[in-house]
TrEMBL record:
The chain crosses the membrane at residues 21-45, 120-139, 146-165. It comes from Streptomyces millisiae. This is Integral membrane protein. Keywords: Membrane, Transmembrane, Transmembrane helix.
Amino acid sequence: MSATTRTVRRSFARRAGESAFGVLLLVRYLLLGLLTLLIVVGGFLGSWDTARDAMSPGDLPQGRLTLAACSDDACTGVFEPSGATVALVQPIAREPGETLDVAVYEDTGEAIRTGLPGVLYSWLPLMGALLLASVVIAGGLRMYRVAAATGATALAALGLTFALWI
C-alpha cells in the first residue's frame, strides 16, 4: 500500500492572520529600534556641547584652576594664567586649595574640566542613555546579550568616571 500525501490548504482567514501577526512583529521591532536610537541620540546630543570642549578646547583658554571656595553645586577659584575668578559647576563638592585642569568660557566665566576625568564626566548623559537603551533592548527587542554588553559598558564607564572625578 502506498501512502498518499494529502495537502490541506489553510483557510484565507488563517493565512491573513499569520501574515498580520508577522507584520505586527516587524512593526514592534521597528518601533522599539527607533525608540532605542532616539534614546541614544538624545544622550549623545545632550553630551556633545560640553564633551566637544572638554576633549578639544580649541580656542578656549586652558590652564589650572585653584579652588578658593566650594559649595554643594559649584566651586570658584583663580584661573591661571589670567588670574580671573571663574566658577566650576559640579555636583561633587571639592576642597579649597585643589588645582584642576580646566578650559574657560570667557563670555560666562564658567570653567569645564579637561583631561580624562572631564571628558568622561561630560559624556555622563550618553552613559545614562545607554543604560536606559539596554533596558529597551532586553525587554522590547529580546536581544539579551546586546543589552548586557550595552549596560555593562555604560556601568563600567560610569564607575570609571566617578573613580577619576573624585
